[in-house]
Specification:
Blueprint lengths: L14 H22 L4 H27 L6 H24 L4 H30 L2
The protein binds fe (ii) ion (2 copies).
């Protein structure tokens, strides 16, 4: 399985947010490895929960930046963040109920969030942010 990496073209040039992106991608990849190594369900759940917390924290930081500028796309962007959080929480609940493969969920999340969302919505927000700062 190929690891998700952050492309240098995906840098927002907003230091805090870029660091959070990088950290989340690393944590996501580590978690996928933990699952592949057949770790215990308890360990996987603990790491998955802390991963979700970091994702929420990141979205909150990003949304704080939205408020500092005139950003028309804010509400649509926030809706997508909510969609991602719901997806992760739903996957967690499914994992608790039955032994679904959480690595498939994570790979899907990392692909859609790290590859599509950062490269489209985050980057276009960053462009507007930099124009206004
Ligand atoms: Fe975002
Ligand atoms: Fe982001």
């Amino acid at each position: 399985m190929e690891k998700t990496i952050l492309d240098s073209n995906s840098l927002l040039e907003i230091d805090i947010l870029d660091k959070q992106h990088l950290n989340l991608i690393n944590k996501g990849n580590e978690l996928i490895q933990l699952i592949k190594d057949n770790s215990s369900k308890e360990d996987i759940l603990l790491s998955y929960e802390s991963f979700i917390s970091l994702v929420i924290e990141h979205f909150q930081s990003e949304e704080e930046y939205f408020k500092t500028i005139d950003y028309e796309g804010a509400s649509q962007h926030i809706e997508i963040h909510e969609f991602f959080v719901n997806f992760l929480i739903e996957s967690k609940n499914n994992y608790i109920k039955s032994r679904t493969d959480l690595s498939v969920t994570l790979i899907k999340f990392l692909n859609e969030w790290a590859k599509n969302h950062i490269n489209s919505m985050d980057l276009s927000f960053a462009k507007i942010y930099k124009l206004q700062n």
